[in-house]
Amino acid sequence: MSAPALPLILPDWPAPPAVRACVTTRLGGVSAAPFDSFNPATHVGDDARAVAANRALLRAHLPAEPLWLEQVHGVEVLDADRERCGTGDASIAHCAGSVCAVMTADCLPVLFCNRQGTVVAAAHAGWRGLAMGVLTRTVQRMGGSPGDILAWLGPAIGPDAFEVGPEVRAVFLERLPGAAAAFRPGTGDRLYADIYLLARLELARAGVQAVYGGGLCTVSQAALFHSYRRDGRCGRMASLVWLARDASALGAEPSYQG
Predict the structure, then answer these.
(1) Residues β-bridged to residue 248
(2) I want to staple 164 with a disulfide (CB 3.0 to 4.6 A). Which of 127, 131, 168, 226 is the partner?
């Protein structure tokens, strides 16, 4: 029996056949406003029964329960092959069927695989974690040559919506060469930041050149995505990646590609 229909974004990247990846939207679930309708997050105030039902809908498309992280805007990378829960902002997996996952609602989710199809990873990159090097740490934990790694940038707050204070720019200018290009004047002393470009710069410094995605704005696409910056109380999207146990398809046709 096929899994129930659930709108999913499938990354548009040249991942090897063994790699599976998807991102949920705010559509297709059972949560009431302001978490409507698909919300997999237990920490945002949504009804626990609705979250459980939403996770069950997602689980029907996955080989196993994901490693759900307690995300803290840091750089800790967990091993999804060995751990079932934990505090961190990224996870890696070498074993087929281990599902790496991060949850976001404006922060940048980044999915990884290598060209050999032997390791995958998912990272949660808010500006703090990005500045501290969560993407570099994830690449290091994956092992092998960074030149063999592919990265996909998922839905996040876009450069026309991500207004930050001058202290954010100062942090990146100190830590990331070329970061000045990711900022432009905003209102007063504030600036607009391009989190996609900042991620690309960090990945390039880590040796990753094959970077895809980065064009889906959570703030401007209200019908499709939750956004904390736009709405305050809201649900989350889940970005997931794993190695398949067999050559079967994901279990549903993609609603979107990005």
Answers:
(1) none
(2) 168
